[in-house]
Records
---
Amino acid sequence: MGELVTETNEVKVKVKKEKDMKKIIIGAMVVAAVMAACTTQKQTEPEKTVAQQLMERLDTLRSKGYMFGHQDDPFYGLTWEYQTDSSDVKNVCGDWPAVMGFELGGIEMGDAKNLDSVPFTRMAEEIIKHYERGGIVTISWHPRNPVTDSLKGGTFPQGSAWDISDSTVVSQVLENGAKHELFLTWMCRVAEFLGKLQTADGQKIPIIFRPWHENTGSWFWWGEKFCTADEYKGLWNLLQDYLNGRGFDNLLWAYSPGMASDLTEEKYLERYPGDDRISLVGIDGYQWGTKEDFVSQLDQNLAMLTKFAADHGKIAALTECGLKNLTDPTWWTSTLTPVLGKYGISYFLVWRNYKEEWFGPSPSMPDAPYFKEMYAKKNVLFLNEIQ
Ligand code: BMA
């Protein structure tokens, strides 16, 4: 009996041990299964691209107001050029623009400086700096005319983006066109520059990329009169597909035709590359005539644009604007902000300040106090308010 008991006990102990082991194994399996599920879940949820993160940031910022942007801000102003950390805007209001615009024209030729004499090395440095201080960067590109570019050095606009002497340029750039190969080398140079826009630890910088703008006018070789809607879209896709293929998931693509009288959605859509290709919808609109005409056009265009953006899940912006040389010093607060304040746009950007032509403020100019008044408005955002 004793032996039996002992044997039974041994068996019991063994069985218990086995049961315990089973429990442990089952427990471990459950834990492993849960962990595997979590891991699988993580793997199937794709990481947001740098461009998507920027899109979310722009969307969030819209609840605070709309941002001020300035082209070529840190390079030169009305009375200075190429100093360190200088800016006409900062010299007026003490803060950097939230958005800074940069221009690539000339990169396609392998030039060291852009069409406005800005060295590309300096441009890359300032883009990185602005990103690191919390700012937002947008890039435009006015490439030379690939058909007449050999006329470089001729009297403006020969060979430039504004050279419209040949109306077949877009078709020649597209696949099977005579200038396609040349254009591939141009895009390659753009890609090389964009590839440099990284922080020291290798993070790609988010960029609002705005090529082929003001295409509904006819002053650039990609303008309305010089290509069909399909050719224009072909040109857009060529560049976008090329840069996507090179892995630039940090570009937020912006479409910005010109302001127009009675702009309809139908008109806006005529050359629109498509919802799958565009994240930011804009218009470029300057005041060339009277204040009344500008205000009524801007008002009508922004009403259409912001409705379109809401319906299509896009961000809207006044991608370029200005009153040349601020001939009405009160313009910022008497003309511009009363219209912009009505709409949920992300930003407006005024063009560059140089001696012959300026669109931003400058300390010595009579519009400076009105610019400061605009700066003080809660819903007009500068760098300090978006960091
Ligand atoms: C235009 C003018 C030109 C300049 C071009 C690209 O509006 O400012 O002088 O070359 O933009 O920046």
Note: The longest strand covers residues 315-322.
---
Amino acid sequence: MPLFTKETESIIYGRQAAAVQRMLDFDWMCGRAKPSVAAIVDASSQNALPAFFGAKQILIPAYKTTKEAYNKTKAEVFINFASFRSAYDTTLEAMNYPFSTLAIIAEGIPERQTRIMAAEARKKGKILIGPATVGGVTAGCFKIGNTGGTPDAMASAKLHRQGSVGFVSKSGGMSNEMFNLIAQHSDGICEGMAIGGDRYPGTTLVDHVLRYEQDKAVKIIVVLGELGGTDEYGIAEALKQGKVKKPLVAWVTGTCAKMFPTEVQFGHAGAKSGTAKESADAKNQALKEAGALVPKSYDDFGELIQKVFEKTAGPIPKETTKPRMLPIEFKDALAKNAVRRAESIVSSISDDRGDDVLYNKVPLMQLLNEKATIGDVISLLWFKKRLPKYATEFFEMILKITADHGPAVSGAHNAIVASRAGKDLITCMCSGLLTIGPRFGGAIDDAAKYFKSAVERGISAKEFVEEMKDKDIRIPGIGHRIKSVKNPDARVTVIKRYARKNFPSTKHLDFALEVEALTTQKKGNLILNVDGCIAAVFLDLFSSCGEFTKEEVDDLVEIGVLNAFFALGRSIGMVGHAIDQKRLKQGLYRHAFDDILYL
Ligand code: ACO
Ligand code: LMR
């Protein structure tokens, strides 16, 4: 019987997303009904591991301990990706559960520990593959971790369906090469195992050869040994004792070692040319003498396999089975221009896909080198332009001017109340920001709309005031609770002065002041307020600086971007008030009864 079936399930020790995905891709190609990974063990996170089974995303449960994973899944294979430091303890622990096969991937586990694990596995009747291996595969059924390589490699080595060659080697990397070679020179592998390159592997070459001898699905056996160690002599002995009757084709790599003047250590810990007995030549000779079919060199290996296969099983059958098609990774298909999809989000102001984030195509590092200001950043991210200095300085002036207006104003008050209710900083800030609206700080956009429309239509300030009165609309940007003709708002004075000095035209400001002249005749506090003044001078800036088309200005006013200046500026003050209350250790705010008119 092959080691694994189409129903075999495993537990992976470690959060090995790539290896798990390779296993699931193989499952899919083989036409399995269920994924072969039932769970992973991850002591540090029990977040399920997302992976694809075909085109469908699934979540593989993660458990803290092997015990839990076993109890929940009853999987029969344990694949240990623990490092060489913890592989010993975790494998011995796993041997307490009824796993039939265990694989250890880590390299560099001390030999003493490997020998204890191997003895323990033998005692408990378990098959231990590794350490220092990629694992193994039963074609068309189940594979361990990264065995077989990429889906393309697995398909070309015909691993998606059963052949009739039983293969065993030490090297995992060479296994993939051999799967391919065997597929070209026979009907492919039935099963392929890489026992690992350590000196004392959990199972030996001969262990698997003897399994293949018993396995009806295996018609010929292929072995790839390597110099170092005496494992191959075990096969020779089994052949001599008549324990292996099926044709066995074998080659021991490392025959080139004799060309080196001193002892050579190849990739594996065990692949060391020591005594003459451990040389590749000696082992090839011994295998040949015992009855194995040994090629002249590795170059003839494929040809010999084919000869033996055809003699035993007849001509190589024509391939009829195709692997179940694996969906292409979206990113790969995209790179090949093979798919298209309308993007869900369109963005035009910034891009962080490269090393340096771009603010409207300008790298942030360049802006820092140029000592660009917050005004420059706003002009790039809000208006997608590099505006002249007088404009960016104006932005910053507005931010400074609107940053705070004391604790009594609506926004600051709400931030203070929230802070005293124990809310966090962002919540306090948002509480204040949410107060900004048509009466408080957020009248700028509406003021801009009305002033712009009146100026465009060429109506007089008087006609405008009457029109608004007739419609029963309060003029946004006019009126203040405490500022008045007698108590002018110094902020408004500064803004007016800046616009007159720097902006090519102030026709909207002039219009707004004509409106103010009329409204203040009615009441002294119906002045052009901060919001109204900001609205008017922004209209002047946009329409006269030469950087915006008329359509762009219409768009900005229509969208309503100007309240953002108040919101951004005032958030500075709101943060300040929220922090201040916490620093002052102010308790919960409660309004005084005597300050409320109870009706
Ligand atoms: N347009 C026309 N008339 C007005 C306006 C206005 N913008 N504001 C107040 N009035 C009139 C009222 O209709 C009322 O008239 P009446 O006496 O004939 O009934 C009179 O002035 C007083 O109204 P109140 O509501 O008592 O005025 P108050 O001083 O409380 O209002 C406020 C101040 C809320 C700012 C108000 O002027 C207003 O709504 N303005 C428009 C919104 C605005 O620009 N807000 C931003 C203010 S600045 C800032 O928050 C940073
Ligand atoms: C402000 O800047 O908050 C004000 O002009 C509003 C106010 O009530 O003073």
Note: Residues 563-583 form the longest helix (21 residues).
